[in-house]
């Protein structure tokens, strides 16, 4: 639990997000393809374990892209970050490749893809709702209804940030459930082992009881026999002496 909390504080850092978003978008604007080194850097930046939860962002592909476009994008990106192509940075390239491969496989699963799309749509709807609320407040105050999200880039950034947070929250909850399930399975296993050991001890006791029963019976019989013999001896020892009859003259 604690580990998840530490990671969640990392992901919600506005400064971290702002730096990551700004730098990545600057790179994308300068070079829409990105070099192998730039892609590896993008995929392994601080906080990437949460940034990479959005498979569409990992592959840099539009959520509305077709399966054919998805396949082509995966092929191009996987070649860029493949360890064989990055001999001077194979370890990091391998991690970047795994992130790309994981995102691609996730989007190949219709159910997983739908969940990812639902998160993206929820992030966009949340920002749209917040913009409406801002305008309502401005109207109530008699001010201009212009908001910073009217700028498409600002709106896009807000959606990106909210979507990232939603993905992070879901991942934290997933890890918490996983930890809870693991704890319950461990406890169930321990109880199972304890019950098995108890049953084993009882079987061994019963077996030992059966094996030594004849010996105990013989011991008891011998004890009884000795007791009777001793009792007879005591009785003969305690017999009163015979009284001699007096002779009369």
UniProtKB/TrEMBL annotation:
Signal peptide: none
Domain J: 54-121
Chief site of localization: nucleus
Keywords, comma-separated and alphabetical: Acetylation, Chaperone, Nucleus, Phosphoprotein
Biased composition (Basic residues): 227-236
CDD domains, per the entry: DnaJ (cd06257)
SMART domains according to UniProt: DnaJ
Compositionally biased residues, Basic and acidic residues: 177-219
GO cellular component, one term: nucleus
Annotated spans, Disordered: 177-249
Record localization: Nucleus
Lipoprotein is among the record's keywords: no
Pfam entry (one): DnaJ
Functional summary from the UniProt entry: Suppresses polyglutamine (polyQ) aggregation of ATXN3 in neuronal cells.
Assembly description: Interacts with SRPK1. Interacts with HSP70 (HSPA1A or HSPA1B).
Protein name per Swiss-Prot or TrEMBL: DnaJ homolog subfamily C member 8
């Amino acid at each position: 639990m604690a580990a998840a909390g530490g990671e969640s504080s990392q992901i919600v850092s506005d400064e971290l997000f702002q730096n990551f978003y700004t730098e990545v978008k600057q790179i994308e604007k300068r070079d829409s393809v990105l070099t192998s080194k730039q892609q590896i850097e993008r995929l392994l930046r601080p906080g990437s374990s949460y940034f990479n939860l959005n498979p569409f962002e990992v592959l840099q592909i539009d959520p509305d892209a077709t399966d054919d476009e998805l396949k082509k994008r995966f092929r191009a990106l996987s070649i860029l970050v493949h360890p064989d192509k990055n001999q001077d940075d194979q370890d990091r390239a391998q991690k970047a490749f795994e992130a790309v491969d994981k995102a691609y496989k996730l989007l190949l699963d219709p159910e997983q893809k739908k969940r990812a799309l639902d998160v993206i749509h929820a992030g966009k709807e949340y920002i749209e709702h917040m913009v409406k609320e801002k305008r309502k407040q401005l109207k109530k105050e008699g001010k201009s209804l212009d908001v910073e999200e009217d700028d498409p880039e600002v709106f896009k950034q807000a959606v990106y940030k909210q979507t990232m947070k939603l993905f992070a929250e879901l991942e934290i909850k997933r890890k918490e459930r996983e930890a809870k399930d693991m704890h319950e399975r461990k406890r169930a296993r321990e109880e199972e082992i304890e019950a098995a050991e108890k049953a084993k001890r009882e079987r061994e006791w019963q077996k030992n009881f059966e094996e030594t029963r004849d010996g105990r019976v013989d011991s008891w019989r011998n004890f009884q026999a000795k007791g009777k013999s001793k009792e007879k001896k005591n009785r003969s020892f305690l017999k009163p002496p015979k009284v001699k009859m007096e002779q009369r003259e």
